[in-house]
Amino acid sequence: MKTTITRLLTTSALLLAVGHSFAADSLPSGPAIALPDVPATLHPPAGQVLYLEALATGVQIYECVSKPDEPSTYEWAFRAPEAALVDRSGRSLGKHYAGPTWESVDGSTVLGEVKARDPGPKQSAIPWLLLGAKATTGGGTFGQAKSIQRVQTVGGVAPSEPCSATNAKQMARVPYTASYYFYRAVP
What we know:
With 187 residues, the chain is mainly beta. The protein has one helix at residues 2-24, and strands spanning 48-67, 70-86, 92-97, 101-104, 109-118, 128-137, 147-155, 171-185.
């Protein structure tokens, strides 16, 4: 009887440890994430806490198109981001693409919508943003997102080369980097 109880306790402890290991793998672990220093207009709503930092490296995609209100005048129009997302150790977290959408390696997604913007400290970089979660899918990493900040941007601004009828429909892929901070409801 004593042997059976010992085996049962050992098996339970092992299952608990394995279960904890799988749960711990669902989100990056390590040191606590420091809140980014952002203007007050980019703070997430009350009742949300920071849970994930994702470093993005990719491109902002633009297309040379005629202006809707002035068909004989052309401009570079933003079409979509395309970026890989990693944590500070370089571990893949997922990808970022049109929508704007963030998709985790676990398949969960968050579709964002801009709530506030700030030009940021560099004119040579795309603006800093606060986005709200318009929709989420899956119960994984991004499925719990309520707000997202895009900060610490480098590059990504529309091309400086002229956009005219001669290069209409031309696509330009402009390199950029950014830090994305994800917030969820206070547990």
